[in-house]
Design goal:
Number of strands of chain B: 5
Order of helices and strands of chain B: HHHHHHHEEEEEH
Number of strands of chain A: 2
Strand order of the largest sheet of chain B: 1-2-3-4-5
Radius of gyration of chain B: 17 Å
Shape of chain A: globular
Largest sheet of chain B: 5 strands, antiparallel
Helix content of chain B: 55-70%
Distance between the termini of chain A: 23 Å
Strand order of the largest sheet of chain A: 1-2
Strand content of chain B: 15-25%
Largest interface: A-B, 50 and 45 residues
Order of helices and strands of chain A: HHHHHEEHHHHHH
Largest sheet of chain A: 2 strands, antiparallel
Radius of gyration of chain A: 20 Å
Oligomer: heterodimer
Shape of chain B: globular
Structural class of chain A: mainly alpha
Strand content of chain A: under 5%
């Protein structure tokens, strides 16, 4: 379902189906089959992705970034650290479960203890005492679990508001949304004013997450010639690194010929560049 | 994903590591020395903490720049297109890319907020002339971010030719946009785009 590769963009019915799904999500923007100047085999939906990227940028400029800057301006760092830890703690049970689904029992236990320690002694997660107890934070998600189960990366996909993803990782995100505790906890605990709790927690999480990213996004703006391509490439590398828990196998020799590319990760850059060049020269 | 990216800042910050130390230092010792050196300057300098760009850039140029091989970095970011450029074009590319990177490091450094950076002992055999020095940036509440320096032994000592933050290589990340630019507007187009980027920064930040 999620194979990637050298299809010409905007042709296959499968891609069209994906495209429909995503369009429904994005609602606001669809650039359609606009011409893309420099095709990347990993990004067959580049025209649509760039449109979503622009849309996200607009929302960010007008709403999210100003809110995040206000948040950072008003609250001192110790308070923000508490908020950051609180929401990070709510991710840990899901992270532990994903460790388990990937067969990493020891890491799953570590993350489970981490959640218990921080939720109790760390006062509902406001203080990250587990790190000092040698229970470090891990980065796992359902997209990574799918990768470990052998699902391909799939085409690169920019999600509305949420940003860089892929066909596979978007499925992971959709599944994970069922385990998003700021939303589910008020329901499971049957709190009074449930909807108000859900909305407030989700909005605060969105703002604090954006605030945590202010330095990074400034850096991207400063560093990148083409921010879209820069972030896309960084996303490919980052996901590959995470899937292999920080020690990915070396990439095949960069002669563009090697066929032994790990199917779960994007093809290596040299091969991609070569393919792009061939296409640009009309060979595809 | 996003929170982890935040660590990119770190990657760049850590770049800002080196001091002009002796050539006989092992690569990991060199990274450690420069890291400590730069962090101690930032911690003492109120103006840098307050966001004084000029001073931050000066710090990067003095302490970090000498330990980087910008020609190799540029060549790696260019990939196959490097050989298509004339020596003059190559020189122009290296100059513009260096300016861009120095300013980017400075931006990253000004975001430094007391994170702990731990440089790991090198595991490569002693005779190796091409090594990766690994380090970690630690911060409560988030997973540690790895910060790796690819280094090569040259007659002028060990030089960094790539920095990898949380698995994201700086040089590789530039590759797509460099290739796009060259494909659309040629090598001169890329030089122009880089120069334009640097000029924008100049007018924006003063």
């Amino acid at each position: 379902m999620l194979e990637q590769g050298g299809r010409p963009p905007c042709r296959s019915p499968r891609q069209k189906r994906w495209r429909l799904v995503v369009t429904a999500l994005a609602a606001a923007v669809l650039a359609g089959c606009a011409t893309v100047q420099s095709p990347d085999p990993r990004d067959p939906w580049e025209a649509m992705n760039r449109a979503t990227f622009e849309f996200n940028d607009g929302v960010d400029r007008v709403v999210l970034k100003p809110l995040a800057e206000g948040y950072r301006f008003v609250l001192p760092e110790p308070v923000r650290a508490g908020v950051r830890n609180f929401f990070a703690n709510l991710q840990d049970p899901w992270i532990a479960l994903n460790q388990l689904l990937q067969g990493k029992v020891e890491a799953a236990l570590s993350d489970g203890w981490r959640f218990i320690a921080n939720s109790t002694f760390g006062i509902v997660g406001i203080f990250d005492i587990a790190t000092d107890m040698r229970l470090p934070k891990h980065a796992e998600d359902f997209g990574q679990t799918l990768a470990v189960w052998g699902v391909d990366f799939g085409p690169y996909l920019v999600l509305p508001i949420l940003g860089p993803s892929s066909a596979r990782d978007a499925v992971g995100t959709a599944v994970a949304s069922q385990a998003y505790l700021p939303w589910q906890l008020p329901k499971w605990l049957d709190l009074d004013h449930r909807v108000a709790w859900q909305n407030s927690l989700t909005v605060v999480d969105l703002i604090q997450t954006r605030a945590n990213l202010l330095d990074v996004t400034d850096l991207f703006e400063q560093a990148a010639l083409d921010r879209y391509a820069f972030i896309r490439n960084a996303y490919f590398q980052r996901r590959r690194n995470l899937i292999h828990d920080g020690s990915p196998p070396p990439l095949p020799p960069s002669d563009g010929q090697s066929g032994t590319v790990d199917p779960r990760v994007p093809t290596n850059d040299e091969a991609v560049l070569a393919a792009g060049a061939r296409r640009a020269e009309g060979g595809d | 994903m996003k929170r982890r990216l935040a660590v990119l800042v770190w990657a760049f910050a850590a770049l800002a590591v080196p001091a002009a130390t002796g050539q006989d230092l092992t690569p990991d010792a060199l990274v450690k020395t420069v890291t400590q050196d730069v962090i101690s300057v930032i911690k003492q300098d109120k103006e840098i903490q307050a966001g004084n760009r000029k001073k931050t850039i000066a710090l990067v140029e003095e302490k970090v720049l000498p330990h980087f091989d910008f020609t190799r970095m540029t060549a790696l970011a260019m990939g196959v297109n490097w050989r298509k450029a004339t020596p003059e074009q190559q020189q122009a590319l290296v100059n513009e890319f260096r300016t861009l990177l120095v300013r980017t490091y400075s931006t990253a450094l000004s975001a430094y907020r007391n994170q702990v950076i731990e440089v790991k002992p090198l595991r490569a055999p002693p005779g190796d002339a091409d090594v990766v020095v690994r380090s970690e940036v630690k911060q409560s509440g988030t997973e540690p971010v790895t910060l790796d320096y690819s280094m090569e032994k040259t007659p002028n000592g060990w030089k960094v030719y790539d920095v990898t933050v949380g698995g994201v290589s700086l040089v590789t990340t530039y590759r797509d946009s460099f290739a796009n630019e060259v494909r659309n507007a040629g090598v001169d187009g890329l030089i122009k785009a880089l120069a334009e980027k640097n000029r924008q920064f100049e007018t924006k930040r003063g």
